[in-house]
Amino acid sequence: MFAVANWTVTSKRLLSGVMSAETWLPTELPEYARGFMYMLGSLTASSFAVLVASGIVLAMNGPASWSYNGAVHFVAATHFWAVQAFFFFMMLHLWRVFFTGAWRGGRGLTWLLGAIALLVAIPTAFTGFLINGDLYSQWNAVQAKDGLNALGLGWVNLTNAGQMFGMHVVVLPLTLTVIIGLHITLVRMKSVVPPYPEADTPALARGDDA
Ligand code: HEM
């Protein structure tokens, strides 16, 4: 007789779903998922990839490099526009998943991870504004520090450029990468939610002759 190692069984089941070729290389797409509205999540993820790539170049060159090096300035501008695209597509994606009720059919955790990604994306962007170092970012840092102090979160020192640099280039983007990775893994495992069933429309509302 063997004792059943439950955690092994559970992990095996989970890993075989995560690692299967069918999960990552599907050959068929549901008809309803062919529209542009269903591309918005991928556009968000693509903007995030551009953000990370341009951010790595900026971090390697140092926080002030874009003010004296034209090539790095171009990368900084790319980073800035990638943020605009990231939030723009994320909000449109949020509308799409809201109006198609995409939490249905056991997709609650996918929804929750998306919501957490949004909540983590906000301080990621904000700490980016803070390490600009111009008067605007200094003013923001001081005002927000007052707010955090009032909440008892004084250890987050927004006027400490080193702490904000670490948060913006390491802690928050890595956290976001993990969350987005899990979010997309769940989408791949559970597939895209089917549309709501069509409601029975009364003849009068359809505009039919009485
Ligand atoms: C970091 C930002 C995000 C990225 C990169 C992202 C990425 C994606 C991708 C690639 C998909 C596949 C389907 C599609 O593209 O429409 C998807 C689906 C989904 N996302 Fe997001 N997402 C993000 C934020 C959010 C937010 C804020 C929510 C909601 C609070 C959310 C909830 C969902 C749900 C529930 C699905 C499943 C869709 C379905 O089954 O129809 N996501 N996401």
Beta strand %: under 5%
Largest sheet: none
Bound molecules: protoporphyrin IX containing FE
- Number of DSSP strands? 0
Secondary-structure element sequence? HHHHHHHH
Name the structural class. mainly alpha
Question: What number of domains?
Answer: 2
Write up what this structure looks like.
The chain has 210 residues and is mainly alpha-helical. The chain has two domains: 36-100; 105-193, no CATH class. The chain is 68% helix and 0% strand. The chain has eight helices and no strands. It has helices at 6-19, 21-24, 40-61, 70-99, 108-130, 135-150, 161-190, 203-206. α3 packs antiparallel against α4. The mean pLDDT is 91. The site of protoporphyrin IX containing FE has 29 residues, from α3, α4, α5 and α7.
Keywords summarizing the entry:
globular, 2 domains, 210 residues, binds protoporphyrin IX containing FE
How is the topology of this model organized?
Blueprint: H1 6-19, H2 21-24, H3 40-61, H4 70-99, H5 108-130, H6 135-150, H7 161-190, H8 203-206
Helix pairs in contact: 3-4, 4-5, 5-7
The structure holds protoporphyrin IX containing FE.
The site of protoporphyrin IX containing FE (HEM) has 29 residues, from helix 3, helix 4, helix 5 and helix 7.
Please outline what is shown here.
The protein is mostly helical. 68% of the residues lie in helices and 0% in strands.
